[in-house]
Sequence to fold (355 residues):
Amino acid sequence: MSTQPSSSWRAYDWQLIRDAPIAPVMHMALDEALLEEVAAGRRKPTLRIWEWAASAVVIGRFQSLRNEVDLEGARRHGVQVVRRITGGGAMFIEPGNTITYSIYAPVELVAGMSMVESYAFFDRWVLDALASLGVEAWYQPINDITSAAGKIGGAAQTRRNGAVLHHVTMAYDIDSAKMVEVLRIGREKLSDKGIASAAKRVDPLRRQTGLPREAIIERMIDTFRAQHGLTDSAIKPEEWQAAERLVETKFGTEEWLRAVP
Amino acid sequence: MHGEYKIPGGKLVVVDLNVTDGALRDVVLSGDFFLEPAEALEWMAAALEGLPADTPVETIAERVREAAAHAELLGITPEGVAEAVRRALQGGTQ
Fold:
């Protein structure tokens, strides 16, 4: 990639949040709450590593619920369905099968970059971490992290009041049979990918590294810390409260879930 | 009616609509693209609402372009939206 690690990462005192597993809808709310906190200057730029308390389908802000999700299949498998604030595609999440993180940063960090350039910029450290584990991965614009063996993950961004949220889900392992029962994956989407099977498009990190999920996350954190600096942090009580309010008023409501029916 | 178009190098654009008395109604635009601000989704859908079903594809794209003039579009283009509309009107892709 032409995007080089920028020294401007070092202009900030990066905070790390690693918390206990929480409900998918709470993750959606925390992303908005923490983005607002960074935008308001009440929180320093932050890296948050997610742990999932339940299986989920997470659909993009602009995706049609009925076009993307088999609601009956999701119910049958106990999969919770939530909508996030960023665009991008639907993801099937099972605890322990995915590595998910969010970066909340001032927009100044990516000043002068196009949106497409900023996607690759935000995940450069992850590509370095994967490379150190023997996985040669690269950015496939707009927002895919991929490798010769298949797609590894996808990113999504949104911007608000001078702050940017960049979050990524990577596949550690995947239950493809279950995935096709909860996601509706149309033929048109695959038309320029050159392969017919959605399952074949993904090559998870477990197969590529042979390492426990935890070891990959540790390497990612070590890499971020070495490149950009990282201070251990925690979600503040008022941030939890803000997120809980957002679950009640927005992310937990049918209106939000069906914002695009 | 339902139309899908995967923009080469971009994202999937989906249009669901009805045609009543020769005009586009109940237009829902969706997909895995990115928009800032999010309201631009409704701006674009509203621009399609009520258009005659025989509106040329170039005109549809122009209407969408005007509606999204103050938005940032990533992975979605006015031409791509128009193509998804065209496909929906032709009977869809699935």
In short: Chain A has one domain: 8-109+150-257. The domain at 8-109+150-257 of chain A is CATH 3.30.930.10 (BirA Bifunctional Protein; domain 2). Chain A touches chain B through 29 residues (CB under 8 Å).
